[in-house]
Amino acid sequence: MVSHSELRKIFCSADAVCFDVDSTVIREEGIDELARICGVEDAVSEMTRQAMGGTVPFKAALAERLALIQPSREQVQKLIAEDPPHLTPGIRELVSRLQERNVQVFLISGGFRSIVEYVASKLNIPATNIFANRLKFYFNGEYAGFDETQPTAESGGKGKVIKLLKEKFHFKKIVMIGDGATDMEACPPADVFIGFGGNVIRQQVKDNAKWYITDFVELLRELEE
């Protein structure tokens, strides 16, 4: 059993920190916001809750929700232009503090690349540090499915991304931070998982995470000590 002070030591010496996006870096769940714009909010948010609780295989839950939403390219662009996601308080400062320390920051999301790219641009995270699902559209802009080959489209996908990052960049210590079951499952291969409950508390994560926070200020404080 790793002690809390050891976990903190790993966080402060990590060479890469990976963040989940929905309900962690941003306050909303992107897929629920898309559902709201497309008029199927209630049905989809219930499905999201089940997917995040780990009761339904991730890819099946994603396919099922997208089949219901059928988002067009225009609707995705409208969401980003008119009602963009809100950053969680403290995330901007935390990411910039990590970057000052030459820590690589990645966004690993089961959400959609177009929305995650918008979020990354607000945090000065390069597009090459994004791993997320890609929506597919027909030439007329209608929904045509999603790229099922992306590792983030399936259960265990975030762990696969972290394993890939370790192999590619030879990172010694990677920290994963997120609110959901799919984030917690990414450790191992991540060296430390920090559960985040600042936007929504998932009981399964709160009960099982060795380190659980509800405010990014707690991590900023660690870096300043």
Report on the architecture of this protein:
This is Phosphoserine phosphatase. Keywords: Amino-acid biosynthesis, Hydrolase, Magnesium, Metal-binding, Serine biosynthesis. It holds the Pfam family Hydrolase. InterPro entries: HAD-like_SerB, HAD-like_sf, HAD_sf, PSP. Its cofactor is Mg(2+). The protein is of the alpha/beta class and 225 residues long. It folds into two domains: 4-28 and 86-135 and 146-224, HAD superfamily/HAD-like (Rossmann fold); 34-82, Phosphoserine phosphatase, domain 2 (DNA polymerase, domain 1). Helices cover 48% and strands 16% of the residues. A six-stranded parallel beta sheet has the order 3-2-1-6-7-8, with helices on both faces. The two termini are 24 Å apart. The mean pLDDT is 86.
Task: Briefly summarize what is shown.
The protein contains 12 helices and 8 strands.
Primary descriptors:
225 residues; alpha/beta; Rossmann fold; DNA polymerase, domain 1; 6-stranded parallel beta sheet; globular
Spell out the blueprint of helices and strands:
Layout: H1 4-13, E1 16-19, H2 21-25, H3 30-37, H4 41-52, H5 58-69, H6 73-82, H7 91-100, E2 104-112, H8 113-122, E3 130-133, E4 135-137, E5 143-146, H9 157-169, E6 174-178, H10 181-184, E7 192-196, H11 203-208, E8 212-213, H12 217-224
Parallel strand pairs: 1-2, 1-6, 2-3, 6-7, 7-8
Antiparallel strand pairs: 4-5
